[in-house]
Amino acid sequence: MLRSLNAIVLSSVPVGSGGVVIRTFTDLEGKLSFLVRGLHSKNAIFKPSYLQPLVVLKVSADIRANRQLHYIRDATIEPAPQSLFTNPSTRALSFFVAEVLQRSLHDFQPLKPLFEFTVTWIGQLDQYKGAQGYRVLWYLSELIKILGIAPRILPHHAWLDLAEGISTAVEPSHPYKSPPQITELLHTLFNQPDEQFITQSSGFKSELLDVLLLYLRLHIPGFGEPKSLNVLKYIFL
């Protein structure tokens, strides 16, 4: 069936001679993979810039429920932040967020609120060049909330049981927990991700990132460890 979709590029893998498999997150069908052939031909519908993670495309595609790979008939790129193509730090950020999305979603799992939030977040990348490390933390907290797996953190509880997803006044006996100072910052992050959070969390970005990723690993089967994490930490944290 021929469908018109908006798609966020997550990753791309070259195949064969001039072909590429593009993994995307679409507004109407969730995560989909497309096969594009003739990438370097004169009449190619795709340009190299289309393959950058977090680029947003409008595509006309042949979608078949019994296929793992689908076919793009036409594609155009939406306006994108300039730093997505020119700034190495923003590119590293885009690879990380795209990988987290790819690990969090299942094929044919429409999540339009997450798609719309992500498109808005991408569109603001040029505006937050001095605070992109915090923007990553905010993105992960919003991802967790939209997926419906947000922890319940009460302000008077010192510890967060990451496995159970609930705060507690008593330190959990297992290793999947966040200490009082990080739990307090997580409460702020999940409830008021603004300048107040940036001020309070100074010096704790790396710890917060580790806790958020551990939480995703515990609550999303097969999530694993993002390969782009070390690069992200080196640049931003």
From TrEMBL:
Keywords: DNA damage, DNA recombination, DNA repair
One BP term from GO: double-strand break repair
Pfam families linked to this entry: RecO_N
Tagged with keyword Cell membrane: no
An example Gene Ontology CC term for this record: bacterial nucleoid
Domain DNA replication/recombination mediator RecO N-terminal: 5-77
Lineage: Bacteria, Pseudomonadati, Bacteroidota, Flavobacteriia, Flavobacteriales
InterPro entries: DNA_rep/recomb_RecO_N, NA-bd_OB-fold, RecO
Keyword DNA repair annotated: yes
Coiled coil residues, start to end: none
Record-given protein name: DNA replication and repair protein RecO
